[in-house]
Amino acid sequence: MSAVALDTNVYSGFMRGDAAAVSALRAAREIHLPLIVLGELLAGFMAGTRTRKNREELAQFMTSPRVSLLNPDERTARHYGEIFAALRVAGTPVPTNDLWIAALARQHRLSLLTFDAHFSAIPGLTVMRPGMQ
Q: What CATH code is assigned to 3-128?
């Protein structure tokens, strides 16, 4: 597997030791963590009881030379708008954060590694589901 954008649920699965998530991340040459995913993770950590431990584990994960943070920009906003409009016409809504994650992955021509099936409805996005490659 080459370069992937990582969805929140795959990172969480990886940290829980989910075999499919672990295998998929080990096979990835490059792992790009969308800024939106970082926000979702930090929000989840702060709402939980292991905030410090989870933040330390994330910091360690981010030190890998294969992992980088993927930041949105103006082009991301264009992709977001195109995706939003296409899904609205198709009548297939997707949560707002997931639209931003998809826009970043599509913009950078990265496969999105996720357990969520709804990403498959997004035009121009390559979706990879751990354990189903």
A: 3.40.50.1010
Q: Please state, rounded to an integer, the average pLDDT across all residues of the chain.
A: 95
SS (H, E, C) 53-104: HHHHHHHHHHCCCCEEEECCCHHHHHHHHHHHHHHHHHCCCCCHHHHHHHHH
Domain boundaries, the chain: 3-128
Query: Is the per-residue pLDDT at 29 higher than 70?
Result: yes
**Rounded CA separation 59/64 (Å):** 9
| 116 token code pair | 């969520």
Q: Cβ(106)–Cβ(83) under 8 Å?
A: yes
